[in-house]
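Example 4.3 (complexes with small molecules)
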Amino acid sequence: MMDGSDSMLLEVNDLQMHYPVRSRSWFAKPDYVRAVDGVSFSIAKGETLGLIGESGCGKSSVGRSLLRLITPTAGKVRLEDVNILDLSKREMRDRRREMQIIFQDPFSSLDPRLTAEQIVSEPLVNFKVAKGRELSRRIEELFDQVGLQKQHLKRFPHEFSGGQRQRLGIARAMALNPRFVVCDEAVSALDVSVQAQIINLLMDLQEQLGLSYLFISHDLAVVEHISDRVAVMYLGKIVEIADCHSILQNPQHPYTQALVSAVPRRHPSQKKEKIILKGDLPSATNPPKGCRFHTRCPMAMERCSTVEPIIKRFSDDHAVACHLID
Ligand code: SF4
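Answer. The structure with iron/sulfur cluster bound is encoded below.
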Protein backbone atom coordinates (compact mmCIF):
# COMPACT_ATOMS: atom_id res chain seq x y z
CA MET A 1 0.00 0.00 0.00
CA MET A 2 1.06 3.56 -0.52
CA ASP A 3 3.03 5.41 2.12
CA GLY A 4 2.30 8.80 3.68
CA SER A 5 4.34 10.86 1.19
CA ASP A 6 3.66 14.45 0.05
CA SER A 7 1.58 13.19 -2.87
CA MET A 8 -0.94 11.66 -0.47
CA LEU A 9 -4.24 13.49 -0.11
CA LEU A 10 -6.37 11.17 2.01
CA GLU A 11 -5.37 8.52 4.53
CA VAL A 12 -7.96 6.35 6.23
CA ASN A 13 -6.92 4.25 9.23
CA ASP A 14 -8.96 1.54 10.92
CA LEU A 15 -12.28 3.15 10.04
CA GLN A 16 -15.26 1.59 11.82
CA MET A 17 -18.95 2.26 11.43
CA HIS A 18 -21.19 0.19 13.70
CA TYR A 19 -24.92 0.92 13.62
CA PRO A 20 -26.96 -0.04 16.71
CA VAL A 21 -29.97 -2.24 15.96
CA ARG A 22 -32.88 -3.17 18.22
CA SER A 23 -32.13 -6.16 20.47
CA ARG A 24 -34.40 -9.17 20.56
CA SER A 25 -35.29 -8.54 24.22
CA TRP A 26 -34.95 -5.80 26.85
CA PHE A 27 -32.34 -7.87 28.68
CA ALA A 28 -30.14 -8.75 25.73
CA LYS A 29 -27.02 -6.69 24.93
CA PRO A 30 -27.61 -4.23 22.05
CA ASP A 31 -26.72 -5.64 18.62
CA TYR A 32 -24.62 -3.73 16.13
CA VAL A 33 -24.43 -3.92 12.36
CA ARG A 34 -20.68 -3.77 11.76
CA ALA A 35 -21.03 -2.14 8.35
CA VAL A 36 -17.40 -0.98 8.29
CA ASP A 37 -15.05 -2.94 10.50
CA GLY A 38 -11.47 -1.72 10.35
CA VAL A 39 -10.91 -0.29 6.89
CA SER A 40 -7.59 1.38 5.94
CA PHE A 41 -6.46 2.86 2.61
CA SER A 42 -4.94 5.98 1.14
CA ILE A 43 -5.60 8.05 -1.98
CA ALA A 44 -2.92 10.16 -3.67
CA LYS A 45 -3.47 13.56 -5.25
CA GLY A 46 -5.04 13.13 -8.68
CA GLU A 47 -5.67 9.41 -8.08
CA THR A 48 -8.86 7.35 -8.33
CA LEU A 49 -9.35 4.48 -5.93
CA GLY A 50 -12.19 2.17 -6.95
CA LEU A 51 -14.08 0.58 -4.03
CA ILE A 52 -15.92 -2.51 -5.14
CA GLY A 53 -18.16 -5.05 -3.42
CA GLU A 54 -21.69 -6.42 -3.27
CA SER A 55 -24.62 -4.38 -2.08
CA GLY A 56 -24.55 -4.36 1.74
CA CYS A 57 -20.77 -4.83 2.07
CA GLY A 58 -20.34 -1.38 3.68
CA LYS A 59 -18.79 0.56 0.79
CA SER A 60 -21.34 3.40 0.84
CA SER A 61 -20.91 3.70 4.62
CA VAL A 62 -17.17 4.17 3.99
CA GLY A 63 -17.85 6.98 1.48
CA ARG A 64 -20.32 8.77 3.74
CA SER A 65 -18.06 8.39 6.80
CA LEU A 66 -15.19 10.12 4.97
CA LEU A 67 -17.35 13.23 4.53
CA ARG A 68 -18.90 12.85 7.98
CA LEU A 69 -22.37 12.61 6.49
CA ILE A 70 -22.55 9.83 9.07
CA THR A 71 -20.33 9.79 12.15
CA PRO A 72 -17.93 6.84 12.22
CA THR A 73 -17.63 4.77 15.40
CA ALA A 74 -13.82 4.90 15.33
CA GLY A 75 -10.80 5.45 13.12
CA LYS A 76 -8.91 8.29 11.49
CA VAL A 77 -9.57 10.11 8.22
CA ARG A 78 -6.69 12.45 7.43
CA LEU A 79 -7.10 14.97 4.63
CA GLU A 80 -3.45 15.93 4.29
CA ASP A 81 -2.45 16.87 7.85
CA VAL A 82 -5.93 17.12 9.43
CA ASN A 83 -7.93 14.28 10.97
CA ILE A 84 -11.38 15.40 9.92
CA LEU A 85 -12.99 13.22 12.61
CA ASP A 86 -11.44 15.58 15.22
CA LEU A 87 -12.97 18.73 13.71
CA SER A 88 -15.85 20.65 15.29
CA LYS A 89 -19.06 20.96 13.23
CA ARG A 90 -18.06 24.47 12.19
CA GLU A 91 -14.54 23.44 11.17
CA MET A 92 -16.02 20.50 9.28
CA ARG A 93 -18.39 22.81 7.40
CA ASP A 94 -15.39 24.74 6.05
CA ARG A 95 -13.62 21.49 5.10
CA ARG A 96 -16.71 20.30 3.17
CA ARG A 97 -15.74 22.71 0.42
CA GLU A 98 -12.81 20.42 -0.28
CA MET A 99 -14.76 17.15 -0.04
CA GLN A 100 -17.86 16.49 -2.10
CA ILE A 101 -20.07 13.55 -3.03
CA ILE A 102 -21.93 12.54 -6.19
CA PHE A 103 -24.84 10.19 -5.48
CA GLN A 104 -26.32 7.36 -7.53
CA ASP A 105 -29.72 8.91 -7.94
CA PRO A 106 -29.53 12.62 -8.73
CA PHE A 107 -33.33 12.72 -8.88
CA SER A 108 -33.58 12.22 -5.12
CA SER A 109 -30.45 14.25 -4.26
CA LEU A 110 -31.48 17.36 -6.25
CA ASP A 111 -34.31 19.56 -4.92
CA PRO A 112 -37.16 19.16 -7.48
CA ARG A 113 -38.50 22.68 -6.69
CA LEU A 114 -35.29 24.43 -7.74
CA THR A 115 -34.13 25.23 -11.27
CA ALA A 116 -30.79 23.87 -12.48
CA GLU A 117 -29.30 27.35 -12.01
CA GLN A 118 -30.51 27.54 -8.39
CA ILE A 119 -29.24 24.01 -7.65
CA VAL A 120 -25.72 24.82 -8.81
CA SER A 121 -25.67 28.31 -7.28
CA GLU A 122 -26.75 27.07 -3.82
CA PRO A 123 -23.31 25.98 -2.53
CA LEU A 124 -21.68 29.12 -4.03
CA VAL A 125 -24.20 31.34 -2.23
CA ASN A 126 -24.09 29.36 1.05
CA PHE A 127 -20.31 29.62 1.22
CA LYS A 128 -20.37 33.26 0.04
CA VAL A 129 -18.05 32.41 -2.84
CA ALA A 130 -19.75 34.52 -5.49
CA LYS A 131 -22.73 36.80 -6.10
CA GLY A 132 -24.25 38.88 -8.89
CA ARG A 133 -22.44 38.74 -12.24
CA GLU A 134 -19.59 36.69 -10.83
CA LEU A 135 -22.11 34.04 -9.68
CA SER A 136 -23.76 33.90 -13.13
CA ARG A 137 -20.36 33.65 -14.81
CA ARG A 138 -19.28 30.79 -12.51
CA ILE A 139 -22.54 28.87 -13.09
CA GLU A 140 -22.17 29.19 -16.86
CA GLU A 141 -18.57 28.00 -16.57
CA LEU A 142 -19.67 24.96 -14.54
CA PHE A 143 -22.47 24.14 -17.00
CA ASP A 144 -19.95 24.33 -19.82
CA GLN A 145 -17.47 22.10 -17.94
CA VAL A 146 -20.07 19.33 -17.46
CA GLY A 147 -21.55 19.56 -20.98
CA LEU A 148 -24.82 21.37 -20.16
CA GLN A 149 -26.00 24.39 -22.14
CA LYS A 150 -27.25 27.86 -21.25
CA GLN A 151 -30.82 26.90 -22.16
CA HIS A 152 -30.72 24.28 -19.38
CA LEU A 153 -30.32 26.92 -16.66
CA LYS A 154 -34.04 27.50 -16.07
CA ARG A 155 -35.10 23.86 -16.30
CA PHE A 156 -36.19 21.76 -13.33
CA PRO A 157 -34.61 18.35 -12.54
CA HIS A 158 -37.61 16.39 -13.94
CA GLU A 159 -37.08 18.07 -17.34
CA PHE A 160 -33.63 16.48 -17.74
CA SER A 161 -32.67 12.98 -18.91
CA GLY A 162 -30.91 10.70 -16.38
CA GLY A 163 -27.48 11.52 -17.85
CA GLN A 164 -28.15 15.27 -17.86
CA ARG A 165 -29.35 15.09 -14.25
CA GLN A 166 -26.12 13.40 -13.28
CA ARG A 167 -24.19 16.15 -15.11
CA LEU A 168 -26.13 18.64 -13.00
CA GLY A 169 -25.20 16.72 -9.82
CA ILE A 170 -21.56 16.82 -10.94
CA ALA A 171 -21.71 20.59 -11.62
CA ARG A 172 -23.05 21.12 -8.11
CA ALA A 173 -20.34 18.92 -6.61
CA MET A 174 -17.63 20.81 -8.53
CA ALA A 175 -18.97 24.30 -7.71
CA LEU A 176 -16.69 24.85 -4.71
CA ASN A 177 -13.53 23.52 -6.39
CA PRO A 178 -13.20 20.38 -4.24
CA ARG A 179 -9.99 18.38 -4.04
CA PHE A 180 -11.61 15.06 -3.18
CA VAL A 181 -14.89 13.64 -4.49
CA VAL A 182 -16.72 10.47 -3.48
CA CYS A 183 -18.64 9.04 -6.44
CA ASP A 184 -21.16 6.72 -4.78
CA GLU A 185 -22.57 4.39 -7.48
CA ALA A 186 -22.56 7.59 -9.59
CA VAL A 187 -23.30 5.82 -12.89
CA SER A 188 -25.15 2.70 -11.69
CA ALA A 189 -28.63 3.99 -12.56
CA LEU A 190 -27.66 5.00 -16.13
CA ASP A 191 -27.75 3.16 -19.47
CA VAL A 192 -24.40 1.68 -20.51
CA SER A 193 -23.76 4.29 -23.25
CA VAL A 194 -24.55 7.14 -20.85
CA GLN A 195 -22.37 5.52 -18.18
CA ALA A 196 -19.41 5.78 -20.55
CA GLN A 197 -20.10 9.49 -21.20
CA ILE A 198 -20.30 10.29 -17.48
CA ILE A 199 -17.13 8.32 -16.72
CA ASN A 200 -15.31 10.21 -19.50
CA LEU A 201 -16.58 13.48 -18.05
CA LEU A 202 -15.34 12.54 -14.55
CA MET A 203 -11.94 11.61 -16.00
CA ASP A 204 -11.71 14.89 -17.96
CA LEU A 205 -12.58 16.91 -14.86
CA GLN A 206 -9.99 14.98 -12.87
CA GLU A 207 -7.32 15.87 -15.39
CA GLN A 208 -8.32 19.54 -15.62
CA LEU A 209 -8.78 20.09 -11.89
CA GLY A 210 -6.35 17.58 -10.34
CA LEU A 211 -9.14 15.86 -8.38
CA SER A 212 -8.89 12.67 -6.34
CA TYR A 213 -11.83 10.25 -6.42
CA LEU A 214 -13.13 7.41 -4.32
CA PHE A 215 -15.23 5.64 -6.95
CA ILE A 216 -17.70 3.29 -5.26
CA SER A 217 -19.50 0.68 -7.37
CA HIS A 218 -20.80 -2.89 -7.27
CA ASP A 219 -19.71 -3.28 -10.92
CA LEU A 220 -16.06 -4.10 -11.61
CA ALA A 221 -16.63 -3.57 -15.36
CA VAL A 222 -17.34 0.11 -14.57
CA VAL A 223 -14.63 0.50 -11.91
CA GLU A 224 -11.88 -0.73 -14.22
CA HIS A 225 -12.41 2.15 -16.66
CA ILE A 226 -11.72 4.93 -14.18
CA SER A 227 -9.61 3.51 -11.33
CA ASP A 228 -5.85 3.65 -10.82
CA ARG A 229 -6.14 1.25 -7.90
CA VAL A 230 -8.99 -0.94 -6.66
CA ALA A 231 -9.97 -1.98 -3.13
CA VAL A 232 -12.27 -5.01 -2.83
CA MET A 233 -14.61 -4.99 0.15
CA TYR A 234 -16.43 -7.94 1.70
CA LEU A 235 -18.69 -7.69 4.74
CA GLY A 236 -17.15 -4.57 6.25
CA LYS A 237 -13.49 -5.26 5.45
CA ILE A 238 -11.07 -4.72 2.58
CA VAL A 239 -9.93 -8.15 1.43
CA GLU A 240 -7.65 -7.07 -1.44
CA ILE A 241 -6.18 -3.79 -2.67
CA ALA A 242 -3.88 -3.28 -5.63
CA ASP A 243 -3.37 -1.35 -8.83
CA CYS A 244 -6.19 -1.90 -11.30
CA HIS A 245 -4.12 -4.05 -13.65
CA SER A 246 -3.07 -6.47 -10.87
CA ILE A 247 -6.65 -6.82 -9.63
CA LEU A 248 -7.85 -7.72 -13.12
CA GLN A 249 -4.91 -9.82 -14.31
CA ASN A 250 -3.66 -11.37 -11.10
CA PRO A 251 -6.40 -11.39 -8.44
CA GLN A 252 -5.31 -13.31 -5.34
CA HIS A 253 -8.35 -13.38 -3.07
CA PRO A 254 -10.99 -15.97 -4.06
CA TYR A 255 -13.70 -13.30 -3.75
CA THR A 256 -11.85 -10.97 -6.14
CA GLN A 257 -11.30 -13.91 -8.49
CA ALA A 258 -15.08 -14.47 -8.57
CA LEU A 259 -15.74 -10.76 -9.25
CA VAL A 260 -13.15 -10.68 -12.05
CA SER A 261 -14.55 -13.85 -13.63
CA ALA A 262 -17.97 -12.16 -13.89
CA VAL A 263 -16.69 -9.18 -15.94
CA PRO A 264 -17.82 -9.65 -19.57
CA ARG A 265 -14.88 -9.74 -22.04
CA ARG A 266 -15.13 -9.29 -25.80
CA HIS A 267 -11.86 -10.95 -26.71
CA PRO A 268 -11.93 -14.79 -26.40
CA SER A 269 -8.36 -14.85 -24.99
CA GLN A 270 -9.49 -12.70 -22.06
CA LYS A 271 -12.56 -14.76 -21.21
CA LYS A 272 -12.44 -16.62 -17.89
CA GLU A 273 -14.65 -19.37 -16.56
CA LYS A 274 -17.28 -17.72 -14.40
CA ILE A 275 -16.98 -18.54 -10.69
CA ILE A 276 -20.44 -18.75 -9.15
CA LEU A 277 -20.48 -18.00 -5.44
CA LYS A 278 -22.91 -19.98 -3.32
CA GLY A 279 -25.28 -18.25 -0.91
CA ASP A 280 -25.85 -14.61 -0.07
CA LEU A 281 -23.76 -12.07 1.78
CA PRO A 282 -24.02 -13.06 5.50
CA SER A 283 -25.42 -10.60 8.03
CA ALA A 284 -23.05 -7.86 9.20
CA THR A 285 -24.75 -8.08 12.63
CA ASN A 286 -23.29 -11.52 13.18
CA PRO A 287 -20.48 -12.01 10.64
CA PRO A 288 -18.94 -15.50 10.27
CA LYS A 289 -16.00 -16.24 12.58
CA GLY A 290 -12.52 -16.58 11.13
CA CYS A 291 -12.46 -15.44 7.51
CA ARG A 292 -15.77 -13.72 6.84
CA PHE A 293 -15.80 -15.18 3.35
CA HIS A 294 -15.37 -18.83 4.44
CA THR A 295 -19.09 -19.68 4.19
CA ARG A 296 -18.95 -18.99 0.42
CA CYS A 297 -15.32 -19.57 -0.45
CA PRO A 298 -14.60 -22.42 -2.91
CA MET A 299 -11.03 -22.70 -1.50
CA ALA A 300 -11.90 -22.67 2.24
CA MET A 301 -9.65 -24.74 4.53
CA GLU A 302 -10.17 -25.86 8.11
CA ARG A 303 -8.52 -22.87 9.77
CA CYS A 304 -10.48 -20.41 7.64
CA SER A 305 -13.51 -20.87 9.93
CA THR A 306 -11.53 -20.10 13.10
CA VAL A 307 -8.59 -17.82 12.27
CA GLU A 308 -9.23 -14.41 10.72
CA PRO A 309 -6.67 -13.61 7.98
CA ILE A 310 -5.05 -10.20 8.29
CA ILE A 311 -4.31 -8.10 5.24
CA LYS A 312 -0.69 -8.59 4.13
CA ARG A 313 1.50 -7.21 1.41
CA PHE A 314 1.61 -9.65 -1.51
CA SER A 315 3.82 -7.52 -3.74
CA ASP A 316 4.83 -3.84 -3.90
CA ASP A 317 1.41 -2.21 -4.17
CA HIS A 318 -0.75 -5.30 -3.69
CA ALA A 319 -2.16 -6.51 -0.36
CA VAL A 320 -4.48 -9.46 0.34
CA ALA A 321 -6.30 -10.90 3.38
CA CYS A 322 -6.35 -14.67 2.75
CA HIS A 323 -4.62 -17.67 4.36
CA LEU A 324 -3.76 -18.94 0.87
CA ILE A 325 -1.02 -16.31 0.55
CA ASP A 326 0.49 -16.86 4.05
FE1 SF4 B 1 -11.11 -18.52 1.33
FE2 SF4 B 1 -9.78 -19.18 3.53
FE3 SF4 B 1 -8.80 -17.32 1.90
FE4 SF4 B 1 -10.94 -16.84 3.37
S1 SF4 B 1 -8.88 -17.22 4.13
S2 SF4 B 1 -10.68 -16.33 1.26
S3 SF4 B 1 -11.97 -18.80 3.34
S4 SF4 B 1 -9.10 -19.49 1.43
